[in-house]
Amino acid sequence: MEDPLAWKLAKRQESISIAEFFEKNRQILGFDSQPRSLITTVKEAVDNALDACEEAEILPDILIFVEQTGRDVITLIVEDNGPGIVRRQIPCVFAKLLYGSRFHAVKQSRGQQGIGISAAVLHSQLTSGKPVRIISKIGKDHPAHYFELVINTKTNEPEILKDEEIEWDRLHGTRVELEMEASYVRGRRQSVYEYLKETAIVNPHARITLVEPDGNEMLFERASEEMPVAAREVLPHPHGIELGTLMKILRYTERKRLAPFLRYSFSKIGLHTAEEICKTAEIDPNTDPRTLGVDDAKKLIKAFKKVKIMAPSTDCLSPIGEELIYRGLRKEHTADYITTTTRTPSVHSGHPFIIEAGIAYGGSLRKDERAKILRFANRVPLLYQQGACAITHTIEKIKWRQYGIDQAQGSLPTGPLVILVHIASTHTPFTSESKEAIADVPEIMNEIGLALKELARRVSAYLGKEKTLTKRREKEVIIKKILPQLATKTAQILERPTPDINPIIAKIMGNVLVKREIHENEKVHQVIIQVQNNTETTQRFTLHETHEHPIYNPSPTPKTTPIASEYNYQWKITLRPQEKKAILYDLQTKPDELQKLPPPIIDGIEKELVTGAKAINQRGA
Amino acid sequence: MQEKDPQSRASLKQVIQTIYEQLEDGTIPNMRLPTRTKKNIEITEGEVWVYGDSESTRSAKTTKGAYQLLKTTHLCDLLINDHLQQNKSSTLREIYYISENWNHAKFNEQPESDRLIEDLEIITGLQREDFHVRPEENGATIFGPLRIKETTKRGERTMHCQEDVGEAGYQIPYNVEKIEFLEHDAQLIIAIETGGMQDRLIENGFDEKYNALLIHLKGQPARSTRRLIKRLNTELQIPVAVFTDSDPWSYRIYASVAYGAIKTAHLSEQMATPQAQFLGVQPTDIIEYNLSTDKLTNQDIKALHNELTDPRFNTPYWDEQIKLQLELGKKAEQQAFAGKGLNYVTDTYLPTRLTEIGMIKR
To answer: Does B164 share its domain with B46?
Structure first.
């Protein structure tokens, strides 16, 4: 007997509906162009692999193999060393749309919508007609399972074409192979390469290998052996709850009375708070929650906002950490200076979030280009819609010139810098379903701004130091190369003795100058020691002179210490900036011994700040 | 050995002396020079361009300044001990190459050494000829009723610039001070932008008919050409007319003859001839004589607009001419008169214009 026509129609309608659902939502799902289809598929597969490895606390080792198998046809293989998937779950994970455990959980995770890999499978199936091939193995002593699956577009149920046990030389892990209409592009921002590179930056614990269609192999090596701290699941916080979700949990709760329902379904609600909420909503705390309608739910949400409730706990967030962001940036960029920060947790409409940021400056980065912005939400790189994103908007609002970085009015800064911003949150507010740009939520923008300004201050300090160093180097060229030549050359032209350039060196370097002149006479020689402070601070030091013979008529009078056969004289001197002083004494010695006099010794000033004397530092030590 | 050489040596030695004394004194060596930019240009009562009061300091505090001082020292050494001591000379380009052996004082490019020589002119109040420094190219030529005596390295030479020279004329030496004017019949000087037009005037016998000295400017005139025009004008009181193309660049040629240029503003008093008059080709001539023209390029238009704010063109005459040219959007060459016959320029245009500016009487 034939099926009634109505049944057939109904079936067709269903079959239309899932394909149609996909067609209508191509853009949201990330399959609106050939290059993007591939990126989205890689992204879903890699996200799954990373999540699985993290849950099992395995350091991820992921291989992405892209092969051109026809005009506009790509075969993609993604293989991980994760815990594997148990045999009976494999079909649902890969071939049932909207299957996933993460849909209702309040926890920071990469995928939020749970459409994920099965959408890629559907795209593959619709464009190539081929099934998805899966290999998965859960441990050394378990067999590897090989599946070929398609999604039944009528029922949204997996259809198993093959289910075999095979030999696989891995301990555990999962391998997905998909064939689809797609194209592999490179050399631009939105590419598989760039996506993986950015993923590697925020997942420094992962080793990612990419094999491009031309056989070129690229390795993003791991920079850390540390697993990120796993995010904990928590109950939803009343401030973030939406009406629909509240209605759903009211309907399906096992609690019989409203007050305990509130206490055990939400975080941060205690006995007292639960009663207060009921009172404010004017609902009897003993009401069966399952009987509450939409109006009561609205009253409850209003009450959530009126009653004082503690801020949500933040241990459900898993920030990357300053150290790991630093390592991630360092391994993918050759920069002169890298600085990173992780802010303390904050809250936007009931959802906790943490902003992390990093700036890499200099090195091989281009000086004449706009800063490169790396945006991440829950460790997932955001490649599209940079201009619509709160991260970009915040960066544009910062006055970078204050920090010594170029910027055209109201646009991104220009210079050799990479700016990384990561938002970790149980609920990231995106501008649209395509989840590529973060909405301009004031609390989030404020936190991003604070993080970036802190980093910009550090970059500015670094640049200041660099400038000082450059100046110092320039000065060294002047005093070591040019001035000596200038002195000898002018002396030679004028046929006069070469002048002593120490006083000028002291001035240029901003040093303390010690200049000893000896006026030779027949018997008694007059010694004049001039000291001048060219530094910007007051200098206190001791000047030592050591002679074989005693000195006469010293002015001012020194402290004298005879050591063995020598005489040591010490003058305590204090010089304000630019101040000059002179020490005079007479000396009786043979003229040839004058040439052998040891240089004056200065005690109490750093060696670099003294010109014309030997500097020692006993006092400061 | 030139008469002035001991004085030049002393002046250059003074430059070195100053640096030496600063070194000896413990002062960071430095040198003060007038700022050599358009902002620091003033017009004297004699209507020529000179540098104003703004000065900049070159100090060994900075690497750039220190290098410049060292280079100055080496350059002075060359000028004092090689040029003046041994009566040798070098061209600007040769000096750039000589510096190869100066280690840290080596010039990076020729404009750098050219500029430093100009700096020394400013500091000493002398001219590069006094240091025995020559430009690369020879000067332009003069043709007309003038007898001169030139002191050359091989003795004195006397010649008449019409009778004793070929059709190319007498070549102006780089040091015009070596020329003595003996006698002349000249009534006027015409300074001409292009060699072709000078040849045309010679071929047509314009010099004989009007007793004119024809001087070729060769584009932007060399210092020697400007200095010769100045000397002829002041020493012999011969009036000067400048005959160029009709485009913004040619007006600047006239302006540098009459008022001087930014780069050599320290020499304007010796080289600028403010009495020189602009003969043409004028934008009004384009209409009046219906000349063949070319379109103004974007650069031409930009240059014309710049000239509207240039103090050298700040007269009602130039304002009218430049605005007219912008309106026309056209420019014309001196040679455009050839379209009306080879004699037109000498028989009609020049006599008419010279009468208009009062240099000949009908």
So the answer is: no
Distance from CA of A477 to the nearest CA of B (A): 7
**CB-based contact (8 Å) between A582 and chain B?**
no
pLDDT digits (tens, 9 = 90+) for A301-345: 889 888 888 877 777 788 888 988 998 898 888 889 999 999 988
Identified catalytic residue from B67, B97, B170, B289: B97
Token output for B252: 């600047």
pLDDT of residue A611: 87
Domain tally for chain B?
A: 2
Indicate the residue among B110, B134, B158 that finishes a domain.
B134
- Digit-coded pLDDT (tens) for A510-537: 889 999 988 888 888 899 999 999 888 8
- Residue B130's nearest CA partner among B92, B84, B179 is B84
* Same-domain status, B329 and B211: yes
Cβ distance A499 to B24 less than 8 Å, yes or no, reads yes
B170 and B117 in one domain?
Answer: no
CA distance A611 to chain B (A): 13
Rounded to an integer, the average pLDDT of A337-365 is 89
Are residues B270 and B219 part of one domain? yes
Do A289 and A283 contact (CB within 8 A), yes or no?
A: no
Which whole number is the average pLDDT over B216-232?
91
Question: Contact A483/B20, CB-based, under 8 Å?
Answer: no
Nearest CA in chain B to A488: B20
Q: Which site among A485, A489, A508 would you substitute to test the B interface, given the most B Cβ atoms closer than 10 Å to its Cβ?
A: A489
For the cut 60, the answer to whether the pLDDT of residue A102 exceeds it is no
Q: Which residue among A485, A492, A504 sits closest to B26, beta carbon to beta carbon?
A: A504
- Measured CA to CA in angstroms, residue A375 lies from A316, A369, A436 at distances of 21, 18, 9
Q: How many residues does chain A have?
A: 621
Q: Under an 8 A CB cutoff, do A494 and B66 touch?
A: no
Q: What is the ipTM of this complex?
A: 0.77
For residue B16, list chain A residues with Cβ-Cβ distance below 8 A: 490, 493-494
Are B28 and A507 inside 8 Å of each other by CB? yes
Q: Which of B108, B134, B160 is the last residue of a domain?
A: B134
Chains A–B, number of C-beta pairs less than 8 Å apart: 73
Indicate whether B185 and B265 sit together in one domain.
yes
CATH number, domain of B57, equals 1.10.10.10
With vertex at residue A126, the alpha carbon angle to CA A125 and CA A127, rounded to the nearest 5 degrees, is 95
With CB atoms and an 8 Å threshold, state whether B13 touches A482.
no
Q: Are residues B29 and B55 in the same domain?
A: yes
Beta-carbon separation of A499 and B13 below 8 A = no
Query: Cα A493 to chain center, whole Å?
Result: 61
φ/ψ of A483, rounded to 5, equals -60, -45
Structure tokens at A523: 């018997």
Q: How far apart are CA A412 and CA B293, in angstroms?
A: 49
> In this structure, what CATH number is given to the domain that contains residue B156?
3.40.1360.10
Scan for tokens 């001839």, then name that residue.
Answer: B273
Q: Specify if B162 maps to a domain.
A: yes
Q: Which domain holds residue B116?
A: 5-134
Q: Are residues B120 and B16 in the same domain?
A: yes
Question: Is position B97 annotated as part of the catalytic site?
Answer: yes
- CA distances in angstroms from A459 to A190, A281, A329, A416, A463, listed in the order given: 28, 52, 15, 12, 6
Residue B250 lies in a domain: yes
